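Run log // design_07
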């Protein structure tokens, strides 16, 4: 029997490894990946800590990137392969320690979060899931290794806000068990003190990073609902109806099931409730955030399975439901899961720098997402400027907010602002997404004293245009 389990594990992980490594090799980084890299390249440790309240994350991923970013080593492969390794380790732990059958484990492995997102998109989420799974694996024996467990909680909390909810829930449960264990003589006074000191230091570190977090990223319940429905709807009637039915069933079944174990009930309510409150009131979230609903539900069922065999029939039902919930995610974004926002970073950079005319001109970045080309710029002499400020590229956190410098309006190119980045001594080009108000045939904007014509130079897949700017005095 053991041989059969091992063969299944090896076969599944081999197939998973080939698919995800090929995706990693052909993945072009998108804005959020690049933004973290540029911060690691430009900022010091203390600067990164201070910047976290604008990022909505915690610092560990940025620190991991820092040696490679500052040395400018082999971008983007260290970032991509380290992230892949964290996802790989997470699945190894899941296969070895999770109390599910091989079919459930296979479905989870080939679902959207673990096949298309976590191992491929080099952000702070895969490392957080790895630490969450480590905490699950040690859950039953946490009091036997209190120092290791407290350190894992703090490491997990400092990967992302998405993982912070799980780390905090594990932390509260562990603190309760630690106090109870100390009173009963199961935990030594030394381990009790050190574990609490570690978690206290971690709590202070979290408050230092996220205290007074940026209030600009406001959530909206209608916006969250729209984004979430976009995530679960696949334009396949059978799949869409099945997904909605499964979610409704889960909303009624799992609270009843988890109530049998108060700690697991607390974990589920704290994590999933915390995510909901965040998405509704603070930040509406996107696809790469919503997968944590599934991950925290998976972890809750995992923890529940450690309890007594008394509820075996309900355990089987719980596993069937969680398997089906991940099964529908196999089809989620199956045709466009890798088409993240503005992800053609290398292609866009090569389009510019392989063209002698563009490479020797001034390039103006209008949209914050176009800073995704920055790590591909090897020469400090490259003349790239931000729209409206005229400054050279940097990791300015305000670029997260929308159009560069234009976060009070939804759009519009203003001649007065553009004039700051325009160079009268050389040709100036601007990169613009082709939208309703941007014509592939060119357009113009004007002020009281001058007019600027935008003449198309290169149109990329009818989605992006590189326009030459000509300034005309009135």
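design_07 sequence
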């Amino acid at each position: 029997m053991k041989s059969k389990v091992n063969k299944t594990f090896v076969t599944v992980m081999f197939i998973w490894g080939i698919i995800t490594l090929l995706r990693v090799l052909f993945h072009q980084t998108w804005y959020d990946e690049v933004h973290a890299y540029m911060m690691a390249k430009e900022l010091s440790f203390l600067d990164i800590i201070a910047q976290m309240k604008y990022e909505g994350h915690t610092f560990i991923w940025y620190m991991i990137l820092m040696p490679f970013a500052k040395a400018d080593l082999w971008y983007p492969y260290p970032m991509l392969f380290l992230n892949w390794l964290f996802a790989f380790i997470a699945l190894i732990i899941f296969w070895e320690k999770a109390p599910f059958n091989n079919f459930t484990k296979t479905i989870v492995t080939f679902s959207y979060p673990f096949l298309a997102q976590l191992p491929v998109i080099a952000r702070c989420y895969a490392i957080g899931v790895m630490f969450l799974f480590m905490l699950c694996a040690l859950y039953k024996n946490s009091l036997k290794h209190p120092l290791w467990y407290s350190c894992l909680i703090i490491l997990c909390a400092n990967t992302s806000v998405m993982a912070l909810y799980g780390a905090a829930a594990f932390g509260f449960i562990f603190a309760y068990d630690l106090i109870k264990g100390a009173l009963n003589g199961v935990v030594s006074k030394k381990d009790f003190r050190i574990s609490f000191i570690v978690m206290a230091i971690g709590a202070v570190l979290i408050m230092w990073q996220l205290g007074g977090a940026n209030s600009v990223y406001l959530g909206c319940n209608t916006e969250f609902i729209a984004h979430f429905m976009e995530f679960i709807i696949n334009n396949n009637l059978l799949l869409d109806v099945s997904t909605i039915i499964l979610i409704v069933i889960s909303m009624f079944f799992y609270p009843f099931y988890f109530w049998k174990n108060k700690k697991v009930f607390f974990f589920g309510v704290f994590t999933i409730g915390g995510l909901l409150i965040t998405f509704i009131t603070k930040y509406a979230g996107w696809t790469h955030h919503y997968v944590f609903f599934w991950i925290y539900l998976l972890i809750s069922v995992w923890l529940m399975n450690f309890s007594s065999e008394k509820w075996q029939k309900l355990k089987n039902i719980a596993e069937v439901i969680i398997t089906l919930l991940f099964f529908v995610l196999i089809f989620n974004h199956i045709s466009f899961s890798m088409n993240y926002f503005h992800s053609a970073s290398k292609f866009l950079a090569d389009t510019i720098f392989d063209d002698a005319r563009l490479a020797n001109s001034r390039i103006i970045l209008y949209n914050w997402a176009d800073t995704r080309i920055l790590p591909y710029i090897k020469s400090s002499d490259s003349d790239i400027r931000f729209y409206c400020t005229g400054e050279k590229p940097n990791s300015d956190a305000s670029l997260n907010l929308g159009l560069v410098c234009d976060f009070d309006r939804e759009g519009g190119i203003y001649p007065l602002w553009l004039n700051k980045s325009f160079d009268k001594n050389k040709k100036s080009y601007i990169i613009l997404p082709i939208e309703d108000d941007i014509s592939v045939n060119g357009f113009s904007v004007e002020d009281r004293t001058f007019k600027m014509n935008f003449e198309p130079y290169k149109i990329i897949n009818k989605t992006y245009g590189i326009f030459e700017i000509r300034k005309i005095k009135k």
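The mean pLDDT is 88.
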